[in-house]
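Shift notes (night). Ran Saccharopine dehydrogenase NADP-binding domain-containing protein while the centrifuge was going.
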Amino acid sequence: MKKILVLGTGAQGSTVAQRMDEEPNVSEIICADYDKKAVDELVKILNKAKGMIVDANDVDSIIKAADGVDLIVNALPIAFAPNVLEAAIAVKANYQDFAATDVLDTWWPKCVEIMYEDYGKRFAEIGKMAIIGTGSAPGMMCVATKSCMRYLDTCDDILMMVYEGVEAKRFLPFWWSPFTALSDMIDPTFALKDGVLVETEPHSLPVTRHFKGCAAPVTLVEHAHDETVYMGLNKDTHFKGAKNINFKYGGVGINFSTPLYRAGLLSREEETYKGHTFVPFDVIVSHLPPAPKFKEEIKEILDEGLVKDEGAFVIEATGTKDGKKVMVETYLYAPGCVESFERAGITGEMYLTGQCGSLFTKMFVNDDYTQTGLISSDMLTYEECDLYLDYAKALDITLETEVKPL
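Came back to this:
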């Protein structure tokens, strides 16, 4: 029986806690955050949980909450990751994070290298495993892309694409934290180009696709995501020597954000206009509605009606198989916004990200991992990928893969 500490009681942490409450191999879930109300609201709907208030700025505070746990699930902002990693090592616990921190070095790929090498060695020394990038993207996207590699002998290009086309009748550009969403819109973006990790311009290098099940073609652009960094660093060991890797994002959020980015309205630098000093980013965020979190809020939005409820989650990997050029095309299918609410009282964004995250936790509690050290989710073995995808099927999250000649 496993004891778990879930740090952070937002959408991701709450979903993991709820799913683990159903797992027979879990004896106790400690739900911890600095927000007592959020902790109390979560604990009261769970059977195996208790709440704690934790200051994530203080490693000792985390260690106290983590005493005796088998796994720490870190659902806090990425700046807190070093503190949580240190706490996990101190109490000799496994570790799961939804992303990779960016505070260990000024060059983000170097941050990931430090996690692989330094923290990887330290977790291996205590016989534990840490895994980063465990949501939907990164997370399921990494598993799906790694799974594509079994159909190739060599890989040239990997293109990952996410289109989020759920649009409410009310003004709601983002179904998750507007602050986080807009931060992602201006963060440095990375791609593997000719075998080298390079920075690309956010909102640049557009591609257009007409995805299955979508009404019209969609334009997607460069976007800050972990996958390209993970896979770029692991290109030779896990991705058949891939030369070019890109992540593209499109949909309502991009359509809203790209003009703001180009106009400089997402800048975090102070500006003065007509005698008033302000930060453009802060002004924009202050005018955005918060993402719906509670069941009553979501129901109200759905009762008003949606303009559309569609999306796509697609990988195109090209290379060779048996001496012939091929493309491995993989689509992910999952419940949309309306169906997710009918099933679980949550949005499609919450369903996919949270549920996919909880499956990585499920693999911990069922002792499905065979590795120690620190890995990212693209580094699962094919056998681990298959276990993960089998769990996903039970939630109607499935992959459809087709190998096409070129």
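The chain has two domains: 2-97, 140-348+396-405. The chain has a mean pLDDT of 96.
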